[in-house]
Amino acid sequence: ESSLIKFIQALDIDVDHMRNQYKQLGAIPFNSANKYMVSVNTNPDTGAPLITMKGAPERVLQRCDKALIKGEVVDLEGDVLARIEEMQTQCSANGLRVLGFAEYECEKGQFPDDYKYETENPNFPIGNDPTNKKYHP
Length: 137
Fold this sequence. Notes:
Layout: H1 2-10, H2 15-21, E1 24-28, E2 36-42, E3 49-55, H3 57-61, E4 66-69, E5 72-75, H4 78-93, E6 100-105
Antiparallel strand pairs: 1-2, 2-3, 3-6, 4-5
């Protein structure tokens, strides 16, 4: 996390201000079994819950069906997926630490303001999880 903070600070963004803007509603801490962490925050621009994930690329990628490539949202399949996996493998082979990132903005009103976000058995979308059909289509 310290690397991410340094990256943001280099862009002249106040980390504390950013954290205060995006009120945290729930979080799944990183653990070695999941190999990812999840944070649910309120998007200050829309008021909708914003779910973000960071972790091992293979764990994050398997939960995604879209990718942002050069500012365009594209389907995460075929050549796109193969290229991302190839770049991840190359970086790892060169001794670079690689992290995957994902986000999903829920529709405003999808969850009530007083909704309790469960972290042991997530009751909110965290991607393509075949074990939970209700929240993970």
